[in-house]
Amino acid sequence: FSLLLLPGCELTASTKCYTFKVDEDDDSDHTLALSVVCLTDGAKDECNVVEVIGRNHKNQEITVPVANLKLSCQPLLSLNNFKLQPPVTFRLAAGSGPVHLAGWHQILHRDDASFEEDDNDVSEEEIAPIVPAKKERRKQ
Hints:
Jelly Rolls; four-stranded antiparallel beta sheet; 6% helix; flat; Nucleoplasmin core domain-containing protein
């Protein structure tokens, strides 16, 4: 199991797309989580629409808008670790940016024997029985 913080990517008028993919021969499970989409220095006060192009459960390509940013009203959007399965493409569908995307990449190695052992090694702690409190006797 590996967790990598992505330095992110930047979408601009000259670089409108960024594709995140993994090696096809890699049999690990990969999850890409998008945390933040924000306008950066040099952005104009215009609508900047960011789309995600990926595949659905039927392996059909789908395009979903995930952010509509404008400098004067919403320059930043937190996506709360929006999870995606690679390969995935981020596209600046409208506006000239620059728009910065950041998140993390999780890799679950299927051949990692220690991961499987950890699941089966659940130890149960014994819980002490609840005993009623003793009343103190006062001397008179």
